[in-house]
Amino acid sequence: MRVVRAPGVYGPQGDTALLMESLAREELPPGARTLDLCTGTGVLAVAAARRGAEATAVDISGTSVATARLNAKLHRCRVRVVRGDLTEPVAGERFDLVTVNPPYVPAASPRLPARGRRRAWDAGPDGRLLLDRICREAPSLLAPQGVLLLVQSSLSDVTASLAALERAGLRACVAASSTQPFGPVMTERAAWFEERGLVEPGTRSERLVVIRAVSETVRMAASREGTRPVTSATSAALGSGVDEEEADAA
């Protein structure tokens, strides 16, 4: 898929590709409502819209919002793009599928960057400043048969995400994974990762995983029917956020 990326916007990489593959495996009936948090270029929202979904994308970066709108126009599909802090712009709405590729790289600073390129990947000393919020807040955005797809690195504690989603009332599992070499940012921090015990000495690769989380009731129904849980269009939108615009087909 051709993607335009403005300077400073996180471009599609290995984690995006893994999440895209997981998205492609999900059944999206016509009119399914989808949400892509931390959308960046908007590529995941565009992919959902091209399959007939009513797609919404959210990012805190104004440049990312503009880029996502541009990519939606480029691919002649409609995506509602909203600027705001994670789930706040869509509070009260419900979605059949939520995808998230958040910042998850461990960083020395205990705070999220307020600006600059590092905003796209830095996530505190354990890489969980946004992951913990997502695990708490995203479940409330799911429709009764909704699915959450979340991608993260093995360095930011996959087990903690699984446990947090279980506590939120979802049934979570690792649905996909891949191993890739460290990129420039990770390589630069490799010695620090070793000091913190996040990787074994000499390790220069990370495991990326996609966590798939669904409600317990959906899992039980699927088990009785002998089929995999699927998404379905439900719950109309109750509200929207700020700085909102639809990117329509030209």
Task: Describe the structure concisely for a colleague.
The chain is an alpha/beta fold and 250 residues long. The chain is 28% helix and 25% strand. The chain has one domain: Rossmann fold, CATH 3.40.50.
Question: Your description of this structure?
Answer:
With 250 residues, the chain is α/β, with parallel strands linked by helices. It has a single domain (20-112, 121-232), classed as Vaccinia Virus protein VP39 (Rossmann fold), CATH 3.40.50.150. Helices cover 28% and strands 25% of the residues. The protein has eight helices and eight strands. The chain has helices at residues 14-25, 43-50, 62-74, 131-137, 158-167, 184-188, 190-195, 216-225; strands spanning 33-37, 54-59, 79-83, 95-100, 142-153, 170-181, 205-215, 242-247. Strands 6-7-5-4-1-2-3-8 form an eight-stranded mixed sheet. Helix 2 links the parallel strand 1 (33-37) and strand 2. The longest helix is centred in the N-terminal third of the chain and has 13 residues, at 62-74. The protein starts with 13 loop residues before the first helix and ends with a strand. Residues 218-250 have low confidence and may be disordered.
Beta content comes to 25-35%
What count of domains describes the coordinates?
1
The number of distinct β-strands equals 8
Question: How big is the Rg?
Answer: 17 Å
Mean pLDDT across every amino acid position:
86
Report the biggest beta sheet as strand number plus sense, adding barrel if it closes: 8 strands, mixed
The secondary-structure class comes to alpha/beta
Into which percent range does the helicity of residues fall?
Answer: 25-40%
List the secondary-structure elements in sequence, H or E: HEHEHEEHEHEHHEHE
Termini separation (Å)?
18 Å
Shape: globular
